[in-house]
Amino acid sequence: VSAPQGAAADVHAAIDRAVDELADALWRMSLAIHDDPELAMAEHRAAARLAGAIEDAGIPLERPLGGLETAFRGRHGSGGPHVAILMEYDALPGVGHGCGHNLIATAGLGAGLALCRAWPDHPGTLDLVGTPGEEGAGGKILLLQAGVFAGVDAAMMVHPGTQNLPVRHATACVDVTMTFHGRAAHAAGSPEQGINALKALIHTFTQIDSLREHILEDSRIHGIVTKGGDAPNIVPELAQGKFLVRARRAAYLEGLVERVKDCARGAALAAGARVDFEQGLIYAERKNNRVLADRYARYFAACGETLHTSSLRGGTGSSDVGNVSLELPTIQPYIGIAPEGTAGHSHAMAEAAASERGRLAMLHAAAAMAHTAADLLASPALVEEAWQAFRTSEPD
Ligand SMILES: [Zn+2]
Ligand SMILES: [Zn+2]
Asked: Residue 2: is its pLDDT beyond 80?
């Protein structure tokens, strides 16, 4: 498949051949990462596997990167245009690769290796960036702050799901841990001397439920109790809850998270307890670049994939790729690997991430990203079109 404003037809044909040649090795790598899940920011073996494959291909590698032990970057070529392909490889507690990041890793790796093999003297710069800690640690936000994306014209990655979606919206999100401090006492013998930290946490939940009625739709607040006391005959002196607060836009989220904290402050005051907060990095909403998405969709469809259309409304997750997407033209298309209705972060999704359908979708995504990146490297005009779309569009 060739398109106007892009690489020559023989480059695209060579990319398809390279993906075929790399397919078995990519799938072995994907299964190896899948079978050896590592949590956010502790993905040492996955990072070593991916970085090793990049070095073996003769691509100069930097590791660690941006102050993160499990981040890395392979860089091929020099000058502009400058394209970055992103990889994730962190897993979840309990459900392993229930978010399928092993497929993100090898789709990105495959795209980069195929492009460099098919077009060793391509114009411009291709970065293969290993971005750790998507599940809560905000790896891409930290890499952005460290300047890793400076000068990059376009960033792309894919994410597993239940449908093939070139674009999808995402909510802004932040995590808050609330720790309530009270005073222990015998719950029957001298309760009047106790300060019940658990009551303060329970009332925080009910205050948040009251708040919910008066916030913008599309906002989400959900929490769990991670510590609620040690024994029923001791007034709990320490209670802890973890909350996620989400909203359509980060700007609104910043105010909303303060109101959620006020719920806790009020509940603590009422109980005579004290509360402190530990807040994570804000994951921003997503600005999908239509120029990149259209190009990717064309190549993904050419692999025999059926594309779906996102409603761009309703329930969705959040990702630190949103922060990248507010800085430069970015896409994170979804690849359907599991039947409709399969929950993300589930054992079923983890199974799909090691399935035959997962393998095919990963290889098709690798090809589609390699073709898209080749067109961008070949065509400063296409890159300018992507920047123009970036400047004139709002987040989804
Ligand atoms: Zn996830
Ligand atoms: Zn994920």
From this structure: no
